Automatic annotation (TrEMBL):
Subcellular location as annotated: Endomembrane system
Protein topology in the membrane: Multi-pass membrane protein
Transmembrane region(s): 23-50, 62-82, 119-136, 157-176, 196-215
Assigned keywords, A-Z: Membrane, Transmembrane, Transmembrane helix
Gene Ontology CC entries for this record: endomembrane system
Location of the DUF202 domain: 103-173
Principal location listed in the UniProt entry: membrane
Xref: Pfam families: DUF202
UniProt key word Transmembrane helix: yes
UniProt keyword Membrane, yes or no: yes
Protein name: DUF202 domain-containing protein
């Protein structure tokens, strides 16, 4: 799907679950890259305070290299995911016998674990942002002067904590929905769950853009 291969479109639960795992793996990579970019920005700010300008351009370039494509990737996932979802939804549904395959249970469990790992990545990013605020507060005390960026970054990590909570909720929803479909012997698309997921991605992308705008306005 991600490589635009023309695969057979069929409403089969393992295809939906495999699609979810593919995009969740990509999303986790984006979150990790964005967090690494924030750490690079923190290192660049620390070098200013320590009056060391030699490595600062490297960390600033690394910051831009990691964060800007990450934000772009968030917004690119939304239309591509929806395209793949519609492609699968247009196909015929599998038989009730296929729904009783034990591999569907295992696939649902693996997908739930993928949602959990992605949520943990978001929590890790929230932790990085919290430590970023702590880092700025300490330097503000050492310099005996306020840092303009400090009050604007306060509470930014709450967005990613909420993102993690909703991811866990969506993963649980998907697991129980798949188990219900197995008992019913019919594969449903559960479009509303995917719509909530895409809306969540959009809000997180906006939050990332706002964070980059705040950091871009800093002098350090």
């Amino acid at each position: 799907m991600l490589l635009r291969k023309k695969l057979l479109a069929v409403r089969e639960p393992r295809l939906y679950l495999s699609m979810e795992r593919s995009y969740l793996a990509l999303l986790k990579f984006i979150i990790v890259a964005f967090g690494a970019g924030l750490l690079a920005r923190k290192a660049a700010m620390a070098l200013v305070f320590f009056h060391d300008q030699r490595l600062r351009p490297f960390f600033l370039d690394l910051y831009h290299l990691l964060t800007i494509p990450s934000v772009a990737g968030i917004f690119l996932i939304i239309p591509i995911f929806w395209r793949d979802l519609r492609s699968l939804s247009l196909g015929p549904s599998v038989s009730a016998k296929e729904m009783l395959d034990p591999r569907v249970h295992f696939s649902a469990e693996r997908t739930f674990l993928s949602w959990t790992r992605t949520a943990l990545s978001s929590l890790a990013l929230a932790f990085v942002l919290a430590k970023f605020d702590f880092f700025l507060r300490k330097f503000s005390l050492l310099l005996h002067q306020p840092i303009p960026l400090l009050h604007r970054l306060t509470g930014t990590n709450t967005l990613f904590i909420g993102f993690a909570v909703v991811l866990l909720s969506l993963g649980s929803w998907g697991l129980f929905a798949t188990l219900y479909d197995i008992r019913q012997g019919e594969c449903a698309t559960h479009v509303w769950r995917y719509r909530v997921f895409l809306l969540l991605l959009f809000l997180v992308g906006v939050g990332m853009l706002r964070l980059l705008w705040l950091l871009g306005g800093a002098r350090q």
